[in-house]
Here is the input.
Amino acid sequence: MSHQTYLAVDLGAGSGRVVAGHFDGRKLQLEDQNRFPNQGVQLPTGWHWNITELFSNIKNGIAAAAKTHGDKVVSVAVDTWGVDYGLIDERGRLLGLPWMYRDSRTDGLIEEVSKAVPKEELYGRTGIQLLFFNTIFQLAAEARQYPAVLREASQLLFVPDLLTYWLSGERVIEQTIASTSQLLKAGSAEWDLELAAKVGIPAHLLKPVTAPGTKVGKLIASLAAEIGLDSVDVVACGSHDTASAVAGAPARSKNPLFLSSGTWSLLGRELDAPIITDASFAAGFSNEQGLSGTTRFLKNVAGMWLLQECKRNWDAQGSKLHYGELVDHAWVSKAPGLVDPDDASFSRPCDMPRAIADYLRKTGQPVSEKPGDIARVILRSLALKYRVLVNQLRAWMPDLPDTLHIVGGGSQNALLNQMTADATGLTVEAGPIEATATGNIIAQLMARGEISSLEEGREIVRNSFEFETFEPSDTESWNDEEARFLQLIST
Here is the structure.
């Protein structure tokens, strides 16, 4: 076959990118077209996403690809972080900027919603961990605070669906992103409309969902003319970025163990069906949906968010430290402190270095304001969190693999990778860094019939990228650390 180019629009909660994937029938080569920041905007109403600026940056990235590879570009697909959405009216107009999931308008909504639907029932119906920012709680907040907006809205589109609509003119809701909402029936493409009604969410907002790896339409003619492309397919990939990231993991065997490492850490195992038990509910594990009918049985952990938010504060104070330098300082640091990465005091934009210092003081631990010491505290705490989760999975799954695939931007952090190998006793295979864009393109290849399965896509990943392996070398020293960490997170 002739070489073809697939465009992956990949938006994380901190940055975005448009990546061109050049496929020759066996290998995939990635080439950046545009990278840009993505930060929430604090308006008088609260925290929102600047969705129009994101779309402008996406168009710039597609235009750059058109200029260089125009005659080879065959399709484009969008993936983003989960749960957030836009509401459109019957004429297709967006009713306000999408809310940012960390906005405080959902405060107290879990407890309020649980009066209508007990927490155990909510988990049992959807298989999704109860988190304050899940779409169900965001829509419950809309129903209580902005009922007129819901009455005017014709349809909900999750952020990648909204961007896909602006590219193609077609309104679809993709299944993997919908599964993050806590409104789909577990392991199903069917909305739980009874649940929605109990919470006060209008059923007409929830249109039928579309499977990943589906052609949606063509690039809108006016947009194609503006950008300089012709007859390009728009595809629904695994529109939830974690679905694409896990699809891009170079696993050789069925049901791999994965850690998608970015703003969020999502650690779990790809399965054929959901697991919904009292134990999984108590431990806060989710059953998100993936490509080819798979389930991602995983736990959300506040991953590199803590370090990103620290760096944002340090940058505002004039610091010039890059992430690589912070990790270098953390390598040599001896700071002994530990924090619970999921403590509520770290969940929203804040003065994160101060929040971490306050946590250490409150728990009677030494405090240092040096960035390298704070970075080490964060990274060691994450590695211990991973250890706890892996041990939970071992208790439930005697056949747990002995290799952990770490994908995404966090896979570049050699210190955290080695800490994770040591803490868990697992072999860590790190990469690809751009697993999400890679998985996005795998879905496009499936949509166009170039490949027939997820397994075939992962073989392409193994053929195309190099990976770094970290073997456990110091597991015993983490036993005492785990006992101290468990005491922290249980208080």
Observations:
- The first helix runs from residue 51 to 69.
- The CA atoms of residues 21 and 30 lie 5 Å apart.
